[in-house]
Amino acid sequence: MSTEIELKLLIAPEDARRLLRHPLIAALTRQQFSPQRLLSIYYDTADYVLHTQRIALRLRRVGRRWIQTVKTEGRVSAGLHERPEWECETTQGTFVFHAIADPTLRELFADTHLQHALHPVFVTEFSRTRRMLELPSGDVIECSLDRGEIRAGEDRLPICEVELELKSGDPTRLSDLALRLQETLSLKPENVSKAERGYRLVCSRISP
Predict the structure, then answer these.
(1) Considering 12, 47, 66, 93, which has the largest number of Cβ atoms within 10 A of its Cβ?
(2) Helix (H) or strand (E) holding 115
């Protein structure tokens, strides 16, 4: 298990390219990665058993690899997300629940009725551009710009956001960096994850 600590920020589409050219980002960049196309399929039961228990289950395609991720409820405040997560490699459409280290989650997913009831409920697909930043203090932050959409049936919801993920150091550095970027860019803290936005999109489709 690892604990993901990241600050999510909505960014205006017109400012997205400006972010990557921002003098502060350029000055702090220690490693630059090629853009990735990420496809994530989120699974649940027809009555949303996982969502009710604040659990997110997805299979994500990264290049030719597939990654299974399970996340549970953590803490969210002013766009700062802290959530436990369990990841492992798998293949398309295949779950490896026995690889989850948490005994409570492993027991939950061992239920064959639950396993058979799981089906895709929505998809996120976006392009991710990443920079690894190193602050003068030595703290390391991964800056990701995500642009794409969430899909549930024929419905679409755009994604245009920045994630500042702490790789090492003090979590307060995330908000410090965001405040400096907000001086010249339109950035707004986002308390709602992509997964939760996906569920809201699904619920809006079935509401009378």
Answers:
(1) 66
(2) helix 112-117
